Structures are given as C-alpha cells and as structure tokens.
Amino acid sequence: MFLSPSQLDRSTPLEFYQTRRSEVWLRNGSAAIPRETRELISLYRSVALIDAAGKERVVIRDGKLLSRSALHNVSRPADTEFLSENHFRRVRALKRGEIYVSHLTGFHVSPQAELCGAPTPESAYNGSNYQGVIRWFGAPLFD
Questions:
Q1: Each residue of 35-71: pLDDT tens digit?
Q2: Would residue 88 count as lying in a domain?
Q3: Cα four-point dihedral sign 107, 109, 114, 120
Q4: How many Å apart are CA 71 and CA 62, to the nearest integer?
Q5: What one-character-per-residue DSSP string does 44-109 give?
Q6: What is the Cα–Cα distance from 56 to 75, expressed in whole angstroms?
Q7: Which residue did the predictor score with more confidence, 118 or 6?
Q8: How many structural domains comprise the chain?
Q9: How far apart are the C-alpha atoms of 54 and 98, rounded to whole Å?
Q10: Is 55 a member of any domain?
Q11: For residues 119 and 111, is the Cβ–Cβ distance under 8 A?
Q12: Pairing of strands 34-42, 21-29
C-alpha cells in the first residue's frame, strides 16, 4: 500500500527496500568457538513492481536491482521465483483496498544440509538455511 501513491520508478522501491530494516541475531562459528553476531537486515527479501500483464518491471532481490534481462512474466507460475506461485492471478482478482498474503513458500532444505552432520539443531553450525518468503501484496494499482 505504501508504494501505490508513490512515483513508480526504479529508485522508489529501492529506497523502500533499503529503509525498512531490523536487527537479527545470527549464530555462527563452531561448537568449540561459538560466535554471536547481530546484523541489521532488510525486512524484505524482495520488492517487485509487476505490470497488468504479469511482466516484472522493477525487482529488487537481496538488495540488488535485477537487470531487465533477469525479469520474468509472473503470470505463468513456472516463471516465478519458486516455480509454482500463483500470486499474480490472486492479486489481479483483488478489489480496491484488499490485500493478498501468500502461504510460506521456499525450496526444501534437507535435515542433512541444515544440520551439516550435527546430531541436533543446537549443535549445528554453518548448515544451509531455509529461505522462505511470504508474499505481501497491498493491492493492484488502479488507474
């Protein structure tokens, strides 16, 4: 909803992405020498502006503006980031003022990859992390 009254150029969504941050705690190091770090990260993994036909026009993912050649037509679920999302169809059906919030979506991480050989999550270091997303769509833009 914040972006809908804004100028929809490449700099506005990037500023939106960069100014919404929060601190997270990370555990790293090893079992012998555990370390705790705190990082200020974006609240959003990505921000996208998508046209009425489903073509991504501006996408910021992990803090970087994607090149025009990396943009997709998300009206086709197979062309979405997680290869099966139907958020475009659902957002198009929204009425003015309605929002859409997706289920958690992400690629599976096996217990072996997550635990990196450790017997328990508490003793695991440097394993793969699940990176799921919840899509929040304020509303389609209306003329």
A1: 999 999 999 988 888 888 999 999 999 999 999 999 9
A2: yes
A3: positive
A4: 15
A5: -SEEEEE-TTSBEEEEEETTEEPPGGG--BTTSGGGSTTS---HHHHHHTPPTT--EEPPPB----
A6: 10
A7: 118
A8: 1
A9: 19
A10: yes
A11: no
A12: antiparallel
